[in-house]
Amino acid sequence: MAQASGSSAGKSSFGRWGVHLAVLFFVVIWTIPTLGILVSSLRDKDQIIASGWWNSFFSSSQTQAGRLAPASAQQEKDGKFVIEGNIFETPGASQISAFGTRAQQPTAYEAGSVADLGDGETLQVNADGTYVHTSAKAFEGERGQRVYYASTVPPRFTTENYQTVLFSEGIGRSFLNSLTVTIPATVIPIMIAAFAAYALAWMRFPGRALLIAVIIGLLVVPLQMALIPLLEIYNGVGNLFGVPSKTYLGIWLAHTGFGLPFAIYLLRSYMAGLPRELMESARIDGASDFEIFMKIVLPLSFPVLASFAIFQFLWVWNDLLVAMVFLGSGNDQLVLTGRLNALLGSRGGDWEILTTSAFVTIIVPLIVFFSLQRYFVRGLLAGSVKGG
Amino acid sequence: MADLTLRNVKKAYGSLNILHGIDLDIESGEFIVFVGPSGCGKSTLLRSIAGLEEITSGDLSIDGERVNDVPPSKRGIAMVFQSYALYPHMTVYDNMAFSMKIAKENKAEIDKRVKQAAEILQLTKYLDRLPKAMSGGQRQRVAIGRAIVRNPKVFLFDEPLSNLDAALRVATRIEIAKLKESMPNTTMIYVTHDQVEAMTLADRIVVLKEGRIEQVGSPMELYKRPGNLFVAQFIGSPAMNILPGKVDKAGSNTAITHIGGKASVPIATPASAQGTEISFGVRPEDLYVAKGKDSLFEGKVDYIEQLGEVQLVYVDIGRGIELPLIAKLPGNVPIERGATMKLDASAEDLHIFDANGSSFLQHKPEAKAA
């Protein structure tokens, strides 16, 4: 008996560990790339190429080539010809660990040591980049001695990338465009769906069940199927009124249409779960359907309204397809996803641009998700748990 | 203030009939209790009066005015729900003020009436609280307060105590009784399946069964002179003992034969009843241990439930132990299991019902429950 209970306890604790491990797994899977993008976006663009973001907190070592000052800079000292200077344009940015004069052996000498180059020629390069090049004969030639050196660059973090993408790559403008699309495309369906959901949940009228069935049916209609016919209609309507077909109003309506079935379905199932007696009590108290909706149902439905708002906001924000079809690609209409797509083509190798743009794109969903996550969970449970 | 008249009120959901023609007159200021087993239509009847259900046919009048098609809020009623139905996002004050705010009454008047109601129900210090921060009993008081504020002609209660625990139920029951006393002109209609609530609160009880009124009468009338077998067994706990019997001699005093022997019942029976099968009833609490030789019943004690003040004695009187005679005897009478005992009852505590289950009292028009 004791054994049995012991083993069952062990099993349940195993199950709990399983859950914890699974959660940990997903957190790691999700967090690491996000963190990678964030860190990369804050790094210096040369360092991004030199090392992975996980090395970004350590100094990176690179082998570089430079040239000493030309012969015209030589001075005669104690019967020797000397060229002095600093190999770095901006001294202090990095440290030299070793140097050499031949490409085959770029790190032949340690920093600070004096290298004998033959023919009475010596070169000393110090860690801070200063060098002394001496020779028994006068230097000749217009170009200075070529020097290879290994430098260690300390980690450098910067917000320059953000300035670049926001103001010169057009991400800032696209950010505003995305907000212009997303906010009305979230608010409009909620307003329509809330009224519809109340009517479908609590008002009796002929054909109500059929209407609900149609809306549930619309949930499974793929968006792609409707794109072209919709665009045709838009163009027709646009021509009729003499306005361009690709406008913000158009995409608001498109997102509203695509979002409504799910919105009505989610809100209706939540509202239908509110206690019937509340409505009846309000009716006895003299409230009309509109008053019941505004004063009782709407305040009580706040959690589900918030959770639908999150769904819709994230879906519209991340949408590329509908935006491509219903919105132009000009600077004043290109949304973030579209801009990212364009940057991927034009600046495909510039990781600092891409990671920064990506992070700008995900920052809004992240804020929305974390600030409203309790409604998110509640919304997912809507209808399955009473009073959820 | 408000007479309520129901004439042949019927309610059906599609082909399913819930109420089969209810006729009822409720006088102004009465406390009426609808009682009956689950599914008897008592809640439906109440909701029809409230206007939450539409009546399929028949007439419902309040103060002589037909209100079949009048919306609930215009009927001059207020309802207290089983689940309280408080608006969870509003404070107690706002809950109570809601109906007046909807009616766009002026603020001072709202404030006055809410405070007044809160005073009556001792809710004054809770006015700023949300319902979730209150106990069940307090919530029920808020629900009642919300009804009071509306100043209704008719109060409707739909099983208002069934969500409360036993102790609170008694306390709230007394509060409702006192509330009724303080508002003598207000008609109250109360639905319950609990016969204790029905007996203690009602001026008149309406017993319903399967959508029909079985009997209407004061609590003691129903208890003393149940109109039929259903009412006889529904009112009183444990239920009345019903035994098969036969009329030996009809008349103003009826002589019958039952399983335990013979008895004379002071209830008049028509001559036509002579020789017919009848049901013979006696309440457990009307039975006592026979003192003399003569007794109504004699049998072996099969089982005893000792409750302290009383004991329920299950006596096998020859019908088998599945159909015992139950007697409610004082707790201090020594009784042994397996012993043979004799039980008796006063003649006026005996009941007889005809083959259809109606009481013979019903056969005399003047004895019919008002």
At CATH level 2, the architecture of the largest domain in chain A is Orthogonal Bundle
How would the global form of chain B be characterised?
Answer: elongated
Radius of gyration of chain B using CA atoms only? 24 Å
Count the beta strands of chain B.
20
Level-2 CATH architecture of the largest domain in chain B: 3-Layer(aba) Sandwich
What would you report as the Rg of chain A, rounded to the nearest angstrom? 33 Å
Strand content of chain A: 5-15%
Shape of chain A: elongated
> Which protein chains make the most extensive interface, counting residues with beta carbons within 8 Å of the other chain's beta carbons?
A-B, 16 and 23 residues
First-to-last CA distance of chain A: 38 Å
Number of strands of chain A: 9
Structural class of chain B: alpha+beta
CATH class of the largest domain in chain B: Alpha Beta
Which structural traits does this protein have?
heterodimer, A: 388 residues, alpha+beta, Immunoglobulin-like, MetI-like fold, 3 domains, four-stranded antiparallel sheet, 14 helices, 9 strands, elongated, B: 370 residues, Rossmann fold, OB fold (Dihydrolipoamide Acetyltransferase, E2P), 2 domains, six-stranded mixed sheet, five-stranded antiparallel sheet, 8 helices, 23% helix, disordered C terminus
List the SSEs and their pairings.
The complex is a heterodimer of chains A (388) and B (370).
Chain A: H1 2-41, H2 45-50, E1 60-67, E2 75-77, E3 80-86, E4 95-100, E5 109-110, E6 114-118, E7 121-125, E8 130-135, E9 146-153, H3 160-168, H4 171-202, H5 208-218, H6 223-241, H7 248-272, H8 276-284, H9 289-300, H10 302-318, H11 321-326, H12 336-346, H13 351-371, H14 373-381
Antiparallel strand pairs in A: 1-9, 2-3, 3-8, 4-5, 4-9, 6-7, 7-8
Chain B: E1 4-13, E2 16-26, E3 31-35, H1 42-50, E4 57-62, E5 65-66, E6 77-80, H2 92-102, H3 107-120, H4 136-149, E7 154-158, H5 166-182, E8 187-192, H6 195-201, E9 204-209, E10 212-217, H7 219-224, H8 229-234, E11 241-249, E12 254-258, E13 261-265, E14 277-282, E15 288-289, E16 297-306, E17 310-316, E18 325-330, E19 340-344, E20 350-353
Parallel strand pairs in B: 3-8, 3-9, 6-7, 7-8
Antiparallel strand pairs in B: 1-2, 1-4, 4-5, 9-10, 11-12, 11-14, 12-13, 14-20, 15-19, 16-17, 16-19, 17-18
Helix pairs in contact in B: 2-3, 2-4, 3-4
